[in-house]
Specification:
The chain is an alpha+beta fold and about 300 residues long. Helices cover about 45% and strands about 10% of the residues.
Length: about 300
């Protein structure tokens, strides 16, 4: 019997071969992820079958008007046709139903269903893992009737977005990037977040609408800055408690249409305990102690 003797380096070659085995992207998501995707695909296919069935009926009917209306089909299944400006009054054909608009509506429905599928699959991973995978645009001009997308196309896009990182690591990096875009110095302001004992001060986070202040004497956060509070809270929740679920809802009793700048708002996080707003747009965050404030400051790479 022939045997192979391992030569020097043979073990390394074997290890390299094992490590070099490609792991399919489908195996990089959980069974729950696959179940969601498969269910969405099943529901999509059911709707596309209905769209295709009606499309077939109307396009068959449209053949009766091919010469009279010079019909032509586009790549995406839409139909172009000509209409007589002045119908022949000797008959009643101009009252008849024409399937052309219905055909184009079905082609549009085919596109919107495929786009919705892409949005749902990508959106699921974004919501579930707190990542920000861009939702691809389905080309409505080239999408053919009868096309059936597979969810793995969008799972592949998700895995590519991760770039070899875990979902958690990607979510953290994206959160910190959003947070830095909000709190880091800008062209028009060189002021930085400042660690002060058990507090961190964040300058220029919000702007209060002067109209409401002048006429109603209420500190009404300008609409364009509503998202800033959620972004700040998202960062504080991560920096203080190592969680990715922070948003403005963790600021108890906060009403952005009438912000109280006279005292502190309690926070629902464990290590960050309070938040105070200032008329100049600054927001201070208070922690349970100096160590918790320092940990948050460092975790957020400030």
């Amino acid at each position: 019997m022939h045997t192979t003797t391992a030569q020097a380096g043979g073990r390394t070659d074997l290890l390299s071969g094992i490590l070099g085995v490609e792991i399919r992207n489908e195996e990089k998501i959980t069974a729950q992820d696959r179940l969601y995707c498969e269910k969405q695909q099943e529901q999509l296919y059911k709707s596309l079958e209905q769209i295709d069935r009606w499309y077939g009926i109307f396009t068959t009917e449209a053949e009766n008007y091919r010469e009279r209306h010079c019909i032509r089909y586009k790549e995406n299944g839409e139909i172009s046709y000509s209409e007589k400006l002045y119908p022949d009054d000797s008959g009643y054909s101009h009252h008849e139903f024409r399937p052309f608009r219905s055909i184009n509506m079905l082609a549009s429905a085919n596109h919107s269903a495929n786009q919705n599928f892409a949005s749902r699959i990508i959106g699921y991973f974004n919501r579930t893992y707190n990542v920000s995978v861009p939702i691809p645009e389905v080309d409505g001009d080239t999408l053919k009737m009868g096309f059936r997308p597979h969810y793995m196309t969008y799972v592949d896009a998700v895995i590519e977005h991760l770039g070899g990182r875990s979902f958690r690591k990607t979510a953290e990096e994206e959160l910190i990037k959003r947070f830095h875009q909000l709190v880091k110095p800008h062209r028009w302001s060189k002021v930085k977040p400042e660690l002060k004992g058990d507090k961190i001060s964040f300058p220029n986070i919000v702007v209060f609408d002067s109209f409401y202040y002048d006429y109603n004497r209420t500190n009404h956060v300008h609409y364009n800055y509503h998202g800033n509070i959620s972004t700040l809270c998202e960062g504080i929740a991560f920096g203080s408690d190592d969680v990715l679920c922070g948003d403005k809802g963790m600021v108890m009793r906060l009403n952005q249409d009438n912000v109280d700048i006279s005292g502190w708002y309690d926070l629902m996080t464990t290590n960050a305990t309070g938040m105070k707003f200032f008329r100049n747009g600054r927001i201070d965050v208070r922690f349970k102690d100096r160590e918790a404030a320092s940990l948050c400051f460092n975790r957020l790479r400030l």
